[in-house]
Every structure is written in structure tokens, then in C-alpha cells.
Amino acid sequence: MPKRNNEHISISDALKEFVETNKLEKGLNKVNVNDAWKNRMGNAVNNYTTSINLERETLYIQLSSSVLREELSYGKQKIINLLNEELGKEIIKKLILR
């Protein structure tokens, strides 16, 4: 049985400790990246987005429009910066549009 800690800590600190202890950060990052993409890219891009997948530090985006894929490829670094800003930390280093 785990040792009970009698110190008073905030809920956010307790959740951070829980996430770190159970090694859940990678899974949470995947969910957070998905939400960040939807928030930052807007409905026009989201309508053509078929899949969002984060593997290591690379974000794979599947798009159903080749025209949109070509257009977004010109601003890859800007998109990476926008998403990392939304996430509050540098999770994404590379963006691959398919």
C-alpha cells in the first residue's frame, strides 16, 4: 500500500505527480496536440484533416485536400511554433503533411 502523504498540496501538483508517477505524459501530449491543432487551425483546415498523430517529436497530419497540403507546407515552421505556443512547451519539432 502506498505511503500516505500528510502534507497539503494543491490539486494541480497532485495531478502532475500522478502523471509523472504513472508515465502518462506521452498520452496526454497526444490528446493536447490534437486539441491544439483543432483550436489553432480553424474549421476550414479541420474539415480537410482526416488524422492527427504524434510520434516522438514528429506530428503527422493526414489531409484530404492536396491543394491545402501544398499550401500548408509553405508555413510548416510557423505551424509548429503556433502549436507549441498553444501547448505551452516544445513538444513538436517536425511536421509531416500527408
Secondary-structure class: alpha+beta
User: How many helices does DSSP assign?
Assistant: 4
- What letter string, H or E per element, gives the SSE order? HHEEHHE
Helix fraction bin: 40-55%
| Mean pLDDT rating | 88
Rounded to the nearest angstrom, the radius of gyration is 17 Å
The shape, in one word, is elongated
Main sheet characteristics: 3 strands, mixed
Straight-line distance between termini: 48 Å
Low-confidence stretches: none
Strand content: 15-25%
Query: Can you list the strand order of the major beta sheet?
Result: 1-2-3
Number of strands: 3
Number of domains: 1
What are the main properties of this structure?
98 residues, alpha+beta, three-stranded mixed β-sheet, 4 helices, elongated
Task: Describe the fold and architecture.
- The structure is a single chain.
- The chain is built from 4 helices and 3 strands.
- With 98 residues, the protein is of the alpha+beta class.
- The chain has one domain.
- A 3-stranded mixed sheet has the order 1-2-3.
- α2 packs across α4 (76-87).
- The radius of gyration is 17 Å and the shape is elongated.
How would you summarize what this structure contains?
With 98 residues, the chain is an alpha+beta fold. It has helices at 11-21, 25-46, 66-73, 76-87, and strands spanning 49-55, 58-63, 94-97. It has one domain.
Furnish the topology, listing elements before pairings.
Blueprint: H1 11-21, H2 25-46, E1 49-55, E2 58-63, H3 66-73, H4 76-87, E3 94-97
Parallel strand pairs: 2-3
Antiparallel strand pairs: 1-2
